Amino acid sequence: MKRKHFYVKLVLKGEVTEEVPEVSFFRARPQMDFQWILRTLETARNEKSIRAILLVVKNSHIGWGQIEEIHNELKRFHETGKRSLAYLEQGDNKAYYLACGAQEVYLAPAGTLELVGVRAEILYFKNLLAYLGIHPQLFSLGAYKSAAEIFTRENMSEANREMTAAILGDLQVRFNEKVAASRRLTTARAQELMDTGPFSAGQALQVGLVDGLNYEDQMQQILEKSIPGIQHYPDARLRFREGWIKRLLTLRRPQIALIVAEGIITSGESRRSRGRNPFLGSETLVGFLRDVRKRKKIKAVVVRINSPGGSALASDLIWRELKLTDEKKPVIVSFSNMAASGGYYIAAAGRRIFSLPATLTGSIGIISGKFNLSELFKKIGITVDSLDLGRHAGYLSPSRPFQEEEARLLQEQMREFYEEHFLKKVSEARRQPVDAVRALAEGRVWTGNQAKTRGLLDEIGGFAEAIEAARQEAKIPAQQKVRLLRYRKKRSWRELFAIPGVESIPPTRLLALAEEWDIS
Fold first, then answer.
1. Where would I find the H helices in 114-228?
2. Does some domain include residue 325?
3. pLDDT tens column, 181-212
């Protein structure tokens, strides 16, 4: 009997999240689960009947690190002798960079290719705030700690310009190398093409940036020319949640826990804002990690970090729980698109750190302060009256500025946390003298490539490499199958029925839902 051949159609559309996407009955699902993408690519590689992947990119909001991880999976797929095609309706820098991981790239006939090279543009609000009567009183520790500059300056500081140029330069080099390898060009020619973009579909085909101009419905015909009779692999077979029967049969297998740390770090429980921006709550992660330590079948933990930082206190509480967990079971850290400031702080508790080359990493520094709104209140007719039973009782009030002593006390607290906590913990974790870490700190952000050469992480690699490291550290034999237990927050009925635009109230209970699957 002749074996059937299939292709997997993987459509990337909307925001790609590391955490399980949140949904409600009143809102369509606007996000994609990155772990689902990785599992789809893994299935396509291991399933013998699958001979090709069709990657369709439609207005996808995906990070540079996640793109590089998809490239890694596609490379493993190609090593099995299978074929991949990418289809773009239109392409910006990221979409085209993503498509270059495939062996062939196709573009819609009326599409455009916005291949123009990387750029950073920052909006500065100092003059607007002054016009409104808002006076930022923000203090930074670290010459490169630039997040507050958008409120206090009209342009980049020299330190920020230097840091940004270094990051963009590294990204551009990788971009050029990928385009050159994909299109069989020199890197100089790849840069030359970017300098002459953007391109219409016809121009992109003429200069060799795409292999053809087609509509999406014509892509199967292209596959059939090289693999006659190939069919679309049923989407239903790409649903990876396993039933209780298989869980029962594989009950004795060792487990590796997956905990996703995504979003702005804050106290309380993890949640999403009205704009769907995630908040990484310390209580949520603390609950997960304590549960991990209790479960005997869990032999190791992989923490997937995608965070720009946030609360120093919440970061330290998470760090402590990760450290306690690592004393009982190995904790391996995997960076996604960003692990900066508090995101890097919590990573310092891990036994080994893996990062993608483009991951924004580091930013070892601190920002604190407030916005003084007293002039704005005066302009719009708001008056404030108060009773203070302490000299500094109102130091955080937006209705008045810091007193000189209050500003000094706040900066002393920042200095203590920076010196006694952040620098020392990174120094201990990376086995470098404090002065050596201080030279890499100052709030400076590095790419994963740059961070690796400076000893801020252990290996360049993605999720697959982190899982293998967890297996090794837990001394699980290579031939032994393991179960991956993915932790996530149980959602309340109130959240499921949340109306778009209305902030949902987080649930009071945490639970590790048994979303398990085998990994070889």
1. 126-132, 149-152, 158-183, 187-196, 201-206, 219-226
2. yes
3. 999 999 999 999 999 989 999 999 999 999 99
Q: H or E segment at 106?
A: strand 104-107
Q: What is the 3-state secondary structure (H, E, C) of 382-435?
A: CCCCCCCCCCCCCCCCCCCCCCHHHHHHHHHHHHHHHHHHHHHHHHHHHCCCHH
Q: Are residues 350 and 226 in the same domain?
A: no
167 neighbors 159 (Cβ within 8 angstroms): no
Tell me which residue of 88, 96, 32, 34 sits closest to 57, measured CA to CA.
88
The reported pTM is 0.90
- Give the count of alpha carbons within 13 A of 391, CB side only: 5
For residue 188, being part of any structural domain is answered with no
Report the chain's mean pLDDT, rounded to a whole number.
89
Q: How far is C-alpha 389 from the geometric centre of its chain's CA atoms?
A: 45
Is residue 212 domain-shared with residue 343, that is, in the same domain?
Answer: no
Tens digits of residue pLDDT in 268-313: 998 876 546 789 999 999 999 999 999 999 999 999 999 999 999 9
**What residue type is assigned to position 75 of the chain?**
K
Residue 507 pLDDT > 60, yes or no?
no
